[in-house]
Specification:
Chain A is mainly alpha-helical and 368 residues long. Chain A has 16 helices and 3 strands. In chain A, strands 2-1-3 form a 3-stranded antiparallel β-sheet. In chain A, helix 2 runs antiparallel to helix 10. Chain B has one domain: ABC transporter involved in vitamin B12 uptake, BtuC, CATH 1.10.3470. Chain B has a two-stranded antiparallel sheet. In chain B, strands 2-3 form a two-stranded antiparallel sheet. In chain B, strand 2 and strand 3 form a beta hairpin. Chain B is globular. Chain C is 40% helix and 24% strand. In chain C, helix 7 links the parallel strand 7 and strand 8. Chain C starts with a strand and ends with a helix.
Chain lengths: 368, 293, 253
């Protein structure tokens, strides 16, 4: 068990994570090009990529920063809408999808990051429980506002309204009117640019950025704050700055996932990005092991694919999520239950296989 | 006159929030955790009362008693099974578990009762409306809600200050370790807190559903979160704080619904929370907690 | 010569209770200074004042002639005061090496972007940090455990790691809050040697709170005795400890 956090060892661990994603990617390529893949399978690929990015980015907030954010879907929502509007607006100006789509990711991600910054400044000063509620509140506010948002253009320029009354009072030039966001109806003509190839590229970028961040000076400072805020302050770590860095990067990638999501469906409505979606992302993180990026990836893949592949299960999906949250927490944080699980399932240690940070911690505690 | 009637219905809604907020505040003060599932206990209470009335044709009083019993048991069981094993775990683990419990209750209810909203009967339709003046009527439900809340608030305050279990609660809230050393049974006290909080949730469910009759598995979630906002608003851990916070929040919500936008009223309520937490994190009546170094 | 640390009439009251009341002391560079007193005398509160955790409600304090009253914890650490805690506060989920490297955060810099994109500055600085951190761990005989999680170290080593982490911030003044708490006599003996060694090797000025009188009389050149927030006695260790007032405060009448 020595050398667990050794630089080389962590690099090796990261390499395994990258390798797993690469293998998944190659599997998808082979499976789809040989024509073996069903339509259902093909349809699942982009949502899986979206959820993997979401899970990894939320794990930065929950596992590395140690704060519970319940508004991750809100940042995703911002990314999805901004990215889609961007793509629609520049579709004629930038016909090449190779330029337009990457730009859409940057624009959508940055928009989410800016909202993350605005949310983070008041929120990150709060204690854990309050922070959870406030992020939940922000997620709802974002959803609420976007759901009442109208954006259209005509020859006179851009028209922007919050609330249907304001929109109906706007006078349009009928011939040149183009609606982008239509309130609760959302967006209807997003270009369908997403595919699993783009998705995997984004997963790699997300992983590289977040893993490199974690294994850097900034990442160490963030984890120091998580482990002991007072001690971190005593050695001169700027708490607010580092919390914001983690939170904003997390929001950025939620936005990127949103752009991918928005360009995968022909219609986009704000109500999709609700509390339930945020919880689902949290379930990925919790099942995979808080702090373990590899675990998040595997959990996101399994939990996205499973209910779809086993249709009968889909009614019980949310129930399953609830049970996962409770059981994982009880097993990982209660000595007695942890012992029983070790006794019963000691042979097939699933969590060890996932490379969970928590199982490592427990295993080491058992030794000392 | 219009303004006054909005104000009164705001106070009525706020009284329900206050009742729910009491559950949050007591549990937070004593068990030092945010019981995320509290709002969903309200929903379960609503369904129990609804089922009792509609299927067995029992009288409303018996139905309400059923609701209170089920919710109390549920609260105690949840505490024993899900929260007690995590007494010494990190706050993050406890919070995630609580979210899990909340989600579990919602989805069990979804499987049993389905997602379609039930029409909850107004149990207080026999209480006459009060015509205060021309164009200003206070409904019977409103009168009952406000009266019940005030009675419970006074009763609870007396209980906390003048009974032995109440004093034990104060002691555990102040310093769990010291209370234990002084012979207070911490586990029993925490169980009792959950029992009382959940019983109040059952009462709140009847009042809430009588005034807003749509009952579905998500009925409790939003009022639950708003009541937490109310508890934070008033100062978490403080009983009068919950009352003040709840009523203020109800009034703010109703007035913003009336004068700003009905779609954005939730957003406004949450914005209030964020502003309060930024300016005065301890709320109106909250005590400042100094972190020990 | 200006003193390394000078406090003038320093104090704080919490709602009328004067936790520290008019603390004045002078510590010269390179001195080993003790702060003793019965439980609740205000020793840790004094540390919290000197590290900016609390803002003093009266008086001032100066580090190497520079007034630091009113600065926050981070600024004070950057100015050169580092501390350990009575109840050990390590970064439990980080490795022993990383705990020290967090202490090096402000002396060895590269930007977040340089870290994310693995630019040359990242590799260069990380290497320097590793070397410096390992050097410090060597001093405390922790080099062999550098890859352990901090929470898995035995108690005595955790205390040492805390000192190493504090030293990593390259302070001028080191505050040790009950470094020998929970140690057996052998460990205490060893700790005394380490503290002296740290003072000599790093030319450090050290202020420590301690209950273990053997340690205090063994290594502190001067001490201040606090009782109910006020200074009871001050001066050369041997003399002060014989002061009948001090004996009374400790043993009662």
């Amino acid at each position: 068990m020595k050398n667990l956090n050794n630089m080389k060892k962590t690099t090796k661990q990261d390499m395994i994570t990258y390798a797993i994603v690469l293998v998944m990617f190659l599997f998808c390529v082979v499976y789809t090009t040989t024509g073996l893949a069903s339509n259902l399978f093909r349809g699942l690929l982009v949502p899986i990529c979206v959820n993997v990015i979401l899970a990894v980015s939320l794990n930065l907030t929950v596992g590395i920063l140690g704060e519970l954010s319940l508004g991750h879907a809100g940042f995703m929502c911002v990314g999805a809408f901004v990215g889609s509007v961007f793509s629609m607006a520049v579709q004629e100006a930038i016909p090449s999808v190779w330029i337009r789509f990457p730009l859409a990711f940057i624009v959508g991600g940055l928009a989410a990051a800016v909202i993350g910054l605005l949310v983070g400044i008041p929120v990150l000063r709060l204690r854990g429980d309050y922070l959870a509620i406030v992020t939940l509140a922000f997620g709802e506010i974002i959803k609420n506002i976007v759901n009442n948002l109208y954006l259209a253009t005509d020859i006179n320029g851009v028209h922007f309204a919050v609330g249907v009354e304001a929109y109906n009072n706007t006078v349009f030039d009928a011939a040149t009117k183009k609606v982008y966001i239509n309130g609760a109806m959302g967006i209807t003509q997003t270009p369908n640019d997403s595919n699993y190839f783009v998705g995997f590229v984004l997963i790699f970028i997300t992983l590289i950025v977040i893993l490199n961040l974690v294994r850097s000076r900034t990442g160490r400072a963030i984890m120091a704050i998580r482990d002991n805020r007072i001690a971190a302050e005593s050695v001169g770590i700027n708490i607010t700055k580092h919390k914001l860095i983690a939170f904003v990067i997390s929001a950025f990638f939620a936005g990127v996932a949103g752009v991918l999501y928005g360009h995968n469906l022909s219609s986009l409505v704000a109500t999709k990005f609700d509390y339930n979606y945020s919880i689902m992302i949290l379930v990925f993180v919790v099942l995979g092991g808080i702090g373990s990026m590899r675990g998040s990836i595997i959990a996101a893949v399994i939990l996205t694919a499973l209910p779809e592949l086993l249709r009968g299960l889909s009614d019980y999906r949310m129930l399953m999520y609830a049970i996962i949250l409770i059981v994982m927490m009880l097993v990982n944080n209660n000595e007695t239950m942890h012992m029983y699980v070790q006794k019963w399932f000691g042979g097939l240690n699933i969590k060890k296989w996932l490379g969970s940070a928590e199982s490592k911690k427990k295993a080491k505690e058992g030794v000392s | 006159m219009n303004f006054l009637s909005y104000l009164i219905s705001g106070v009525s809604l706020g009284s329900v929030y206050a009742l729910i907020a009491l559950g949050y505040t007591m549990v937070y003060g004593i068990a030092k955790m945010l019981n995320f599932a509290h709002g969903d206990i309200i929903m379960i209470g609503g369904f129990v009362v609804f089922t009792a009335i509609s299927s067995a044709a029992t009288s409303p009083v018996i139905a309400i008693i059923c609701g209170i019993i089920v919710c109390t048991l549920l609260g105690v069981v949840i505490e024993k099974v899900a929260y007690k094993p995590l007494r010494n775990a990190s706050p993050l683990a406890v919070l995630i578990t609580a979210i899990g419990v909340s989600y579990l209750l919602q989805n069990v209810a979804l499987l049993i009762f389905g997602s379609a909203s039930k029409n909850f009967p107004n149990l207080f339709k026999n209480v006459p409306d009060w015509h205060v003046a021309e164009g200003l009527t206070v409904s019977g439900v409103t009168i009952v809600t406000i009266c019940v809340t005030v009675v419970i608030m006074v009763g609870l305050t007396l209980f906390i200050h003048y009974t032995k279990p109440g004093t034990a609660m104060q002691a555990v809230s102040e310093d769990r370790g010291a209370a234990q050393l002084m012979g207070v049974n911490v586990n029993t006290t925490i169980s009792l807190t959950f029992a009382i909080g959940s019983a109040l949730a059952a009462v709140a469910s009847v009042l809430l559903c009588s005034a807003y009759p749509l009952l579905n598995p998500y009925t409790g979630a939003m009022p639950g979160i708003k009541a937490f906002v109310a508890a934070v608003f008033g100062g978490i851990g403080s009983i009068p704080g919950a009352m003040i916070g709840g009523i203020l929040l109800g009034v703010i919500e109703n007035l913003s619904k009336a004068y700003i936008s009905s779609q954005l009223s939730d957003a406004i309520v949450f914005a209030v929370l964020i502003i309060i937490l930024s300016l005065k994190p301890t709320g109106i009546l909250g005590k400042k907690i100094r972190e020990k170094v | 010569m200006t003193a390394m640390l000078e406090t003038k009439n320093l104090g704080i009251s919490f709602g009328g209770l004067k936790a520290v009341d008019g603390l004045s002391l002078k510590i010269e560079k390179g001195q080993l200074y003790g702060l003793i007193g019965p439980n609740g005398a205000g020793k840790t509160t004094a540390f919290n004042l000197l590290t900016g955790v609390y803002k003093p409600t009266m008086g001032n304090f100066f580090l190497d002639g520079e007034k630091l009253t009113g600065h926050n914890t981070i600024e004070i650490n950057k100015k050169g005061i580092a501390r350990t805690f009575q109840n050990i506060r390590l970064f439990n989920q980080l490795s022993v090496l990383d705990n020290v490297k967090v202490g090096l955060h402000n002396d060895y810099k590269y930007s977040t972007a340089q870290g994310i994109f693995r630019l040359p500055a990242f590799f260069r600085t990380e290497k320097e940090m590793d070397r410096k951190a390992e050097e410090l761990l060597e001093v405390f005989d922790l080099a062999g455990e550098k890859d352990y999680l901090a929470s898995n170290l035995p108690y005595g080593k955790q205390r040492k790691l805390e000192i190493a982490r504090a030293l990593a911030t390259s302070p001028k003044l080191l505050l040790l809050d009950e470094p020998a708490a929970g140690m057996n006599p052998n460990e205490t003996q060893e700790l005394m040697e380490t503290i002296r060694f740290v003072r000599d090797t790093f030319d450090m000025t050290i202020l420590l709170i301690e209950h273990d009188m053997r340690l205090v009389s063994g290594i502190c050149e001067e001490i201040t005795v606090l009782n109910f927030g006020t200074v009871l006695a001050q001066g050369e260790t041997g003399k002060v400890l014989k002061d009948p007032e001090v004996v009374k405060a400790y043993l009662g009448d």
